[in-house]
Amino acid sequence: MENSARQDIEKEILKQAIEMIEGQGGYPSAGRVGVKGQDIENAIILASEKWHQGVIGVVASKLVDIYYRPTILISLSGDAGKGSARGIKAFHILEGLQECSQHLERFGGHKAAAGLSINKSHIPAFKEAFLNAATHLKHEDFIPALSLDASIHLDELNEKMVTEMDSLAPFGLGNPEPLFCSRETRVVQSQIVGSNHLRFKATQKNRVFNAIAFGFGDMHPLSDKYMDMAFTPQIEEWNGNRDLKLNVKGMKTAA
Q1: CA distance readout (Å), 187 to 213, 223, 250
Q2: How many CA atoms lie within 13 A of 9 on its CB side?
Q3: Rounded-to-10 torsion of CA 23, 29, 33, 36
């Protein structure tokens, strides 16, 4: 599979998975709290016949980046399911699968990542058992420590840098995406999208970038405010156009 085709498939599966999650009531993003009284599950388990087995591991890692929950995605073909699982620091994903082994045909992996085979009919019972295995997780376990790679100005960003970063993929718990910090960045034109996500434009030194912050909708409006932001730059392709955008992982009012 060509790299561009693989990336298109990854984006589509990620979009579908987020829609499924938000259809179930949504989760706060990594490090964010949920709405008071909202029933938030401690893990994400999703399955679909539309998903390509070869890329669901990468998408599972991206969902962990967004929601910071143990995540399992299952690709279905008839009654056969092949899954990829990703853990978080406070949850050993292989041990979690071992607690649910009676519902699985095969599984294997390590603390951060695992693979599994399951019959489609066993998925509901497996999901219940896996969620039970994750009941010990507490609110603070869903707050990842942000490890910054560098502090930069937005005018230093370019497509060459992001392309070189992408050569380090695949990213996951043992190989996180590079994370940058930009201080005193002016935010303009913020808006809420989806259930609770914040889309805005970030500007610094005459450079303007589109940005998305999953689960940060409660910070709206932010127009004409200065923020310190932790983000991963990404190139998004749509209808032949390329857009260097910011995937914001954390932000606070600039001092």
Answers
A1: 12, 6, 14
A2: 15
A3: -10
Adjacent-strand bridge partners of 47: 74
The helix or strand, by DSSP H or E, that contains position 132, with its residue range, turns out to be: helix 123-133
165 three-class SS: helix
- What is the residue whose two structure tokens read 């609770």? 196
For 16-42, what is each residue's pLDDT tens digit? 998 898 876 555 555 444 433 344 689
Distances (CA, A) of 9 to 16, 81, 89: 11, 18, 28
Task: Tell me the C-alpha distance between 173 and 15, whole Å.
Answer: 21
Q: Does the pLDDT at position 130 exceed 90? A: yes
CATH of domain 3-142: 3.10.310.30
Q: Is the sign of the CA dihedral 53, 18, 44, 171 positive or negative?
A: positive
Minimal CA–CA distance to 175: which of 51, 86, 83?
86
| pLDDT band (50, 70, 90) for residue 2 | low
For residues 115 and 90, is the Cβ–Cβ distance under 8 A? no
- Which fold is adopted by the domain 150-253? OB fold (Dihydrolipoamide Acetyltransferase, E2P) (2.40.50)
Domain ranges of the chain: 3-142, 150-253
Which stretches of 64-154 are assigned E, i.e. beta strand? 71-77, 80-86, 106-109, 113-119, 150-151
Which residue's entry shows tokens 């303007």? Answer: 208
pLDDT for residue 33: 40
pLDDT at position 66 is: 83
